[in-house]
Design goal:
By secondary structure, the protein is of the alpha+beta class. The chain contains five helices and seven strands, in the order E-H-H-H-H-E-E-E-E-E-E-H.
Length: 164
């Protein structure tokens, strides 16, 4: 019998791309709102300086804060979309499952895992499906594709320990 305490893999890129497309559509609805909100906040924050500080227009022309106000949400948007297309890293251990994606991490200890299943998938071979709960008791699910190089027998053993 194979015994291992840890299996790590990086999700196949085609699975990440499929997940990112769904996220892209969801996030794209919020981008115009973010642009408007940033421009309004910048205008509210900077306009008192132009009204009450004499001579500031010669030191800081009006176009510079406008460019800065457009630059920051643009950079945030680009970063969000780049992170979306980064593959997820998965670390399955006997005591927890850890998912890492860009700057986001999710570590689920065994006591908060409701069930973990290794499912067959027509597109990606196998997927790990987790059903978990938050510290406040709210249930959520995650689905991660398994790379072809992962030892499925060892992964099944770890999943059996996590469900046990």
């Amino acid at each position: 019998m194979l015994t291992t305490d840890r299996i790590k893999w990086m999700e196949p890129y085609r699975a990440t791309r499929q997940y990112a497309k769904v996220e892209w559509r969801r996030q794209s609805k919020d981008v115009p709102k973010m642009f408007r909100a940033t421009i309004i906040v910048m205008a509210i924050a900077i306009s008192p300086f132009y009204i009450f500080v004499p001579g500031i227009n010669s030191l800081l022309p009006v176009w510079r804060p406008i460019v800065a106000g457009l630059f920051y949400p643009t950079m945030i948007t680009v970063m969000v979309y780049l992170v979306m297309f980064m593959p997820r890293y998965v670390d399955v251990r006997r005591k927890w499952i850890h998912l890492s994606w860009g700057q986001t991490n999710l570590r689920v200890p065994r006591d908060r895992i409701i069930s973990v299943e290794l499912r067959n998938d027509s597109d990606f071979g196998h997927r790990v499906h987790m059903k978990c709960k938050t510290p406040k008791g709210k249930e959520f699910e995650r689905d991660v594709a398994v790379r072809d190089t992962v030892d499925l027998d060892a992964l099944r053993g770890l999943i059996r320990d996590l469900n046990g």
